[in-house]
Design a protein that fits this description.
Two copies of one chain form a homodimer. Chain A is mostly helical. Chain A folds into two domains: about 220 residues, HUPs (Rossmann fold); about 80 residues, Orthogonal Bundle (Tyrosyl-Transfer RNA Synthetase). In chain A, about 55% of the residues lie in helices and about 5% in strands. Chain A has 15 helices and five strands. The model of chain A has no long low-confidence stretch (mean pLDDT about 95). The interface between A and B is large, with 57 and 57 residues.
Chain lengths: ~325, ~325
């Protein structure tokens, strides 16, 4: 039986952090054995809201690729590719844009929320407004059955399904595949400042590539229970990011339970809990950092992986584009010549 | 000295009519000697408001190409090409979309007028709303210095100039060329019903491919001066489409002046004037029709012209895309590999 196809990826606007690991990379490590997984380094999508910073976008391509490989994404199992090297994605976007009304784009809930979050006001780049269509091109180009997303991204998958149905109905075909959203169990890690989301913009992230001393400093400065002023005071575990992180990274679940109870009844200082967390984090990050350093010594090999992945992805997407143009009777060379 | 570059073309949504000849084809015949002229069969642009009729669009590619060649566009001088065979145009569109705000697109006067004219209401396809950006991609891909347009299309050239400036400024380059609009002397031929514009939608056109008997029927039914009821009545020449057409197609300017004066003082019947017009039109259309019939007997040759033109245009546009990506530091293969 052929494996189902997964499309996933990241905008290349900076290095990846623990939030990415928990929310998506860990899931990809699981998926790569049972699915045909395409992982997209979304440089073109990153440009939709960073048009004036292409150097940052290009530099991040390599950083994110190193993050992937360092955590264990296996290029023999997963196809890692660069979006801007796949021209078919732009062409598909152009054809899909004719199937969706301007009005519909305006009311995409994810885009609306992001416009507020990014503070665009009236100055939203047109490229940003249409990125749901571009994403539909990405998903359908690879005939993805499954797209792992956070729950805030569900409207994007709905938009893709809508385009698939409209396309297949309009051109009387079944060439495009309806994707399904897959929402990972743990979707989100809070920031070290206690905010709901770890993010570069909020400056509250621990990066997979952070050196050990930086991680130590960040953990030491972490937000905890603000009412846990003296060691002997009872502390809160819920909403305390130190314990949320421990839930994910602490290997000894029994000991973690004891730590929580001790913290709740009082007598356990933040510094002790943070020390436990730091140890657990370093135990996780040490091999990732080590692998990353190794990879950086042989960047040629990393580049070869990206080149081969992009070539493979390009051939796949070109084939879909060919089928799409056939379905539209736009296979002009064949029809006219 | 290298020749300046002209980009021009037509949406392939149907055959061309006398209005196209007067408004643009005649101008192209003059330009092709002194300029490097690219003529685009704009099938992708035609799809922006005819997404559900690709067969009509594809069929029209050949019809319009036959019209071009029949009136005397010389493929040795002008490069005739098919838009959907040039992937770089889609890629350039994607990059330019990030440089223009959604708000700016909304307020494009040409697009606003066309939305009303086409009766889109709230259901404007997103592809139609962004077509000024796609047009900027067409113009800049061929580094056009000159773009012949009707005066209603001036905002499209302004939009392109805006994108060129924004791109060159943002990426500190001079790779994109600012185009200039060229407004032909006679921009518009009225319809046979007297409406300001000859158009397929208004069903008031005489096509370059109309057989002789159809042209005769259309001329016979032409709108004239509605107050010129009896032969002996004085008639109006201004706003009388029969005389507007005579101005363009009647070879004997002296005799035309006499006809006008006779018509104005009364005693000259519409049927006589229409007979003069019909003779002049057939004298113009006969060789065009003849050439068209010849070309249709050897469609392989026409297809070869389109293939060679598209190959040449593709190489040109790919080179521009390469320069654009270099300017953006997005020449990833070169930078990373």
């Amino acid at each position: 039986m052929t494996k189902k196809i997964v499309l996933t990826g990241d905008r290349t606007s900076g290095p990846l952090h623990l939030g990415h690991y928990v929310g998506s990379l860990a899931n990809r490590l699981k998926l790569q054995d049972d699915y045909q997984q395409f992982i997209m380094l979304a440089d073109m999508q990153a440009l939709t809201d960073h048009a004036s910073e292409p150097d940052r976008i290009v530099k991040s391509i390599l950083e994110v690729a190193l993050d992937y490989l360092a955590v264990g994404i296996d290029p023999k199992k997963s196809t890692i590719f660069i979006q801007s090297l796949i021209p078919a994605l732009s062409e598909l976007t152009m054809y899909y844009l004719n199937l969706i009304t301007w009005n519909r784009l305006k009311h995409n809930p994810t885009v609306k929320a992001e416009i507020v979050q990014k503070g665009f006001g009236e100055n939203v780049p047109a490229g940003f407004m249409i990125y749901p269509i571009s994403q539909a091109a990405d998903i359908t180009a690879f005939k993805a059955n499954i797209v792992p997303v956070g729950d805030d991204q569900l409207p994007m998958i709905e938009q893709t399904v809508e385009i698939v149905r409209k396309f297949n109905r309009t051109y009387n075909t079944s060439v495009l595949i309806e994707p399904e959203a897959m929402i990972p169990a743990i979707a989100r890690l809070p920031g070290i400042d206690g905010q709901a989301k770890m993010s570069k913009t909020l400056n509250n992230a621990i990066y997979l590539s952070d050196p050990a001393d930086i991680v130590a400093k960040k953990v030491k400065g972490m937000y905890t229970d603000p009412n846990h002023l003296r060691v002997e005071d009872p502390g809160k575990v819920e909403g305390n990011p130190v314990f949320t992180y421990l839930d994910v990274f602490y290997p000894d679940k029994k000991k973690l339970q004891e730590l929580k109870e001790h913290y709740q009844r009082g007598g356990l200082g933040d510094s002790i809990v943070k020390k436990e967390l730091l140890e657990a984090l370093q135990a996780f990050l040490d091999p990732v950092r080590k692998k990353r350093e190794e990879l950086k010594k042989d960047l040629k090999e990393v580049m070869k992986i990206l080149k081969e992945g992009s070539d493979k992805a390009n051939a796949f997407a070109e084939n879909t584009l060919k089928e799409v143009k056939q379905a539209m009777h736009l296979d002009i060379m064949h029809r006219l010549f």
